[in-house]
Amino acid sequence: MTSTTEPTEPLSVEQLSATTLLRFATAGSVDDGKSTLVGRLLHDSKSVLTDQLEAVERASASRGQDTPDLALLTDGLRAEREQGITIDVAYRYFATARRRFILADTPGHVQYTRNMVTGASTADLAVVLVDARNGVIEQTRRHAAVAALLRVPHVVLAVNKMDLVEYKESVFAAIAEEFTAYASELGVPEITAIPISALAGDNVVDASANMDWYGGPTVLEHLETVPVSHDLGHCHARLPVQYVIRPQTAEHPDYRGYAGQIAAGTFRVGESVTVLPSGRTTKVAGIDLLGKPVDVAWTPQSVTLLLEDDIDVSRGDLIVPSKDAPPTTQDVEATVCHVADQPLTVGHRVLLKHGTRTVKAIVKDIPSRLTLDDLSLHPHPGQLVANDIGRVKIRAAEPLPLDSYADSRRTGAFILIDPADGTTLTAGMVGESFAAPQPVKDESDDDGWDF
Amino acid sequence: MTTVASVSEETDSTPYALSHLDALESEAVHIFREVAGEFERPVILFSGGKDSIVMLHLALKAFAPAAIPFTLLHVDTGHNFPEVLEYRDRTVEKHGLRLHIASVQDYIDRGVLRERPDGTRNPLQTLPLTEKIQSEHFDAVFGGGRRDEEKARAKERVFSLRDEFSQWDPRRQRPELWQLYNGRHAPGEHVRVFPLSNWTELDVWQYIAREGIELPQIYFAHEREVFQRSNMWLTAGEWGGPKDGETVEKRLVRYRTVGDMSCTGAVDSDATTLDAVITEIAASRLTERGATRADDKMSEAAMEDRKREGYF
Fold it and tell me: What is the three-class DSSP state of A302?
């Protein structure tokens, strides 16, 4: 990629406005060619502009490199450029005529599992890269497991470096089959395998002439067409109350609205709703969609609900349909990923943020730690350190309306915060994990360092 | 999770799909309301530039029909475009808001800051900004920064903790999971909040067009007296240009960004309407900052270095 592509035909204003947004995350081991794939997607979609490429060319030349190092395009921090590695999640943006994309570009180093968790938490789709020469390796299984754990709706297996295996269908088919079997078992709902060469440009943006045996979409075609809206018909409707809007002006003397972003499902005017944790019930008198009244609103719209009765509702409450209220409980069981450098231990006093509510909590037990490589559970690890995934039992100071993460990614999720210095400690997912209990080996057999 | 049997374009036209602008708007409003719910003294950085204008518009929608529960803060370099200052003051008055001003000129007059040899005042903004944050005890400071602007900004969090010296430490950032923003901070620390993190320049312009938001006229093509310096068209004026060897000429130009006159360049353009601007940007081969900002070109890590010191 030493030259810029010519400008494509400019899009009309109407074309640009009719697009939807897809959030996706990439995951791959260090040398799988993730930077090249990201570079190729950005470059071929005209998202790397002349001045950015010139800056990369200048910097590469000043280091004595012959060709522009596309990693310089994505490694934004001084320390990353110095070490030639990606330290942290970066967010990148590109667009085609059909869709806008937000890419959470997550590092491949094993010690940065927490970064993939971060990227995957908001992703509609994850791209897992595999080197065709190496096939499914430990790191691939970790990435699949994280995608499954975070319930990313769509997973793409990009089998890269097909040029180095003579574009053989048999190589691709074997890897695709092994990965699909493994990921399906974890509960990944949709897997699309695509043979590519990011370096040569095969099946990334343009269909490959070297693999006429492949009849599926290119990576970009798939990103452009994969559905992002979910069937909301049977979703539990949830509105965490963020803020009470009370103008108290001559024009609006009695206006009292409960503002929030709908976390799941749909709300309708006239519907019976219950406010949790108090359990009081009333009806939706009106819905304001950013200043405009509507009859129905759905996730992820930010709205203001007006209620028929003047009941006590404040920030931290959850408004739900009366016919579909989650149970409230002070005892939280969850799968967590520990994201901080200081460990999480039994007896740790923490803050738990769920929706818009933050409560005191205590870690009662850490029953097991999970090894993503083989999905085995290690009993009573005593603590979780950075990048560990494990099961925890937490006692909250107040009752919380918790959904299972399997039912609602948003109201089934929480974070733990260190009350002393505010550090975000842990990402939590309520309910059963995908990992069925398996034969357990004793913690002492383990070297204690899984990733 | 439902498995979708076939992938087709029709799936996006279900009644429950949001356009990308609606999704970005909803997310930004959520961020404004989180800050209103969790902080004591938030403030919006407002320069009269397009990003801060969009921020203000989103804040107005987030709390309608009530007033915005925040004040505004402008770091005035002393080299601002008069049209933009006029727009700023008119907007503040129209919405009945309170505006704080941190003045770079004032710091120079008092001898606290010294004019740089290259005449740019952008790096000089950091001290007045951070001192104002401390003296007013602001605990959340909204900025219009977008991750698409610059590679250091691509690493920025939506809620970005700053220490008591307003410093950013990119290696010690809090992971941001789901939409669960962590605003915890110690006294003296504050949080920079970026509701437009996920917007691109094109998104901002499309949103301005959709919402019919008024902008200062310098964003549209107009005849202006400019001179060339470092491959940029700068507006002639008392701030320090043209110098010897630089000649003024009248050109048809517009601005893509609005900042200090000494380092914000105009681009040749005949785009006089929003549609024309959007068409122009969609076809441009240059980024907004690459086209018109001198301050980012000083070194490979210019933005990172300034952000570490407390720049927004």
Answer: strand
In this model, does residue B173 exceed pLDDT 90?
no
Within an 8 Å CB–CB cutoff, is residue A40 touching chain B? no
In chain B, which residues have their Cβ closer than 8 Å to the Cβ of A51? 286-287, 290-291
Q: Residue A405 and residue A334: Cα distance in Å, rounded?
A: 9
Read off the amino acid at residue A426: T
Q: Do A75 and B151 touch (CB under 8 A)?
A: yes
Q: Is A272 in a helix, a strand, or coil? A: strand
Which amino acid, residue A292?
K
Answer yes or no: are the C-beta atoms of B159 and B30 closer than 8 Å: no
Residue B16 touches partner A, C-beta closer than 8 Å? yes
Residues of A in contact with B148 (CB under 8 A): 92-93
- The answer to whether A286 contacts chain B (CB < 8 Å) is no
- A141 SS3 class: helix
Residue with tokens 């980012």: B296
Q: Which amino acid is at A446?
A: D
Which DSSP string do the residues of B132-168 spell out, in sequence order?
A: HHHHTT-SEEE----TTS-TTGGG--SEEEE-TT---
Interchain CB distance below 8 Å, A20 and B26: no
Q: Is A153 left (phi over 0), alpha (psi -120 to 50) or beta?
A: alpha
Quote the Cα angle for B192-B196-B201, to 5°: 130
CA gyration radius for chain A? 24
| Cα atoms in the 13 Å half-sphere on the side-chain side of B124 | 27
Q: What burial letters (b/e) apply to B5-29, b meaning 16+ CB within 10 Å?
A: eebeeebbeeebbbbbbbbbbbbbb
β-strand partners of A131: A160
Contact in structure between A308 and A294 (CB atoms under 8 Å) = no
Say what the ipTM of the complex is: 0.89
User: Model confidence over A130-147: pLDDT tens digits?
Assistant: 999 999 998 898 899 999
pLDDT at B295: 54
Taking an 8 Å cut-off on Cβ atoms, the answer to whether B154 and A118 are in contact is no
**Cis peptide leading into residue B170 (ω within 30°):** no
Among A32, A299, A118, A65, residue whose Cα is nearest residue B180: A118
Q: Note whether B138 and B190 are within 8 A (CB).
A: yes
Give CA–CA dist A269/A290, Å, rounded: 16
Chain B's closest residue to A119, CA to CA, is: B177
Which residues are paired to A336 by β-bridges?
A390, A428
The minimum CA-CA distance between A61 and chain B, rounded to whole Å, is 13
Packing angle of the helix pair A138-149, A113-121 (nearest 10 deg): 40
Contact, B45 vs B136, CB < 8 A? no
pLDDT tens, A403-433? 999 989 999 999 999 999 999 999 999 998 7
B12 DSSP assignment = G
Report DSSP state, residue B262.
T
Q: Are residues B62 and A259, on separate chains, in Cβ contact within 8 Å?
A: yes
CB–CB of A113/A385 below 8 Å? no
Please work out, in degrees rounded to the nearest 5, the angle formed at the alpha carbon of residue A166 by the alpha carbons of A163 and A171.
100
C-alpha–C-alpha distance, residues B56 and B68, integer Å: 9
